[in-house]
Design goal:
Blueprint lengths: L12 H19 L10 E2 L5 E2 L1 H14 L5 E4 L13 E9 L1 H6 L5 E8 L2 E9 L4 E6 L3 E4 L2 E3 L11 E5 H5 L12 E5 L2 H9 L5 E3 L4 E2 H14 L2 E4 L13 E2 L2 E4 L4 H7 L12
Parallel strand pairs: 3-4, 10-11, 10-12
Antiparallel strand pairs: 1-2, 4-5, 5-6, 6-7, 7-8, 8-9, 12-16, 13-15, 14-16
Helix pairs in contact: 1-2, 5-6
Length: 276
């Protein structure tokens, strides 16, 4: 059960965004001390890579962001389940796309989300290799490198640019979409892909495999803040701060593409009748 203090005033989204921006700049400074493509790598259980850069960025994000009364969920921190009783929780990935970082491919980012009562309400994503910064909240909309941005207004998947998981493409999971009439671009970092969709730099992204909350929370906050569409692969809205942070796959797109995309993926939104 989430415990709320009736006398505690929540920080405004503007203040939250200011903290996110400051934290991302501090993370960018930390990452500048490391060289992508030339860094020692360890491997966690499951063969996921981790570097000293991941751990260093995690430490600086925690220092910059966390305040009394707030929860913390990070890929590189031991999970503290007291977060489950907090109404405001930071969900962060210090370095999403570590495989790309290790390989020297500029498709990695720092991802920060503020989740209130289970919903991502503000987020920031920074790709230091490409010098891109995405910031936004449900109250303010989003900015891309300081300028207002919005998602794709395309109304048809024909000719659309869809960002795919590089690893899913390598495993052959996207062969089913060959010849479908849209362009598929394999990329690393699901957070970065979501950020690009939020700012209209791509039309769609979706993942066919489960992801953790820290992979997608900030990107979801950005897409929804910009007016885009997001749902899980089972057709339900994304909810964060679960005991188990593993989520079903996710899709995100410009608002006018949602109907065609859901039909193409055979997804029935929760709460809607199939008409059968």
């Amino acid at each position: 059960m989430i415990v709320k203090n009736p006398f505690m005033t929540r920080p405004s989204h503007a203040e939250t965004l200011q903290r996110i921006h400051s934290a991302l700049e501090a993370a960018r400074e930390v990452l500048s001390r490391f060289t992508a493509g030339a860094i020692a790598t360890e491997y966690k259980i499951g063969h996921d890579p981790v570097t000293e850069a991941d751990r260093s960025v995690d430490a600086v994000l925690r220092k910059e962001l966390l305040r009394d009364g707030e929860g913390w969920l990070s890929e590189e921190s031991v999970d503290d389940f007291t977060r489950l009783k907090k109404s405001r929780v930071w969900v962060v990935d210090p370095l999403d796309g570590t495989r790309e970082f290790v390989a020297g491919i500029p498709e990695f980012c720092v991802s920060v989300a503020m989740v209130e009562d289970g919903r991502p309400v503000a987020g920031g994503i920074c790709n230091p290799a490409t010098n891109e910064l995405f910031l936004g909240s449900l109250e303010s909309g989003i900015t891309y490198n300081g300028k207002p941005a919005k998602p794709s207004q395309r109304a048809s998947l024909n000719g659309a640019l869809i960002l795919a998981s590089r690893s899913e493409v390598k495993r052959g999971e996207w062969k089913q979409f060959e010849g479908a009439g849209f362009k598929i671009r394999p990329m690393g970092s699901v957070a970065y892909k979501l950020a690009l969709v939020s700012a209209g730099l791509a039309d769609v992204t979706f993942t066919l495999t489960p992801k953790n909350e820290w992979d997608v929370a900030a990107g979801v906050a950005l897409v929804e803040s910009a007016g885009g569409f997001v749902t899980t692969l089972d057709g339900s809205p994304l909810r964060c701060n679960n005991r188990d942070p593993l989520l079903k796959g996710l899709i995100a797109c410009g608002p006018a593409l949602s109907g065609e995309l859901l039909a193409r993926l055979n997804i029935q939104p929760v709460g809607q009748s199939s008409g059968v």
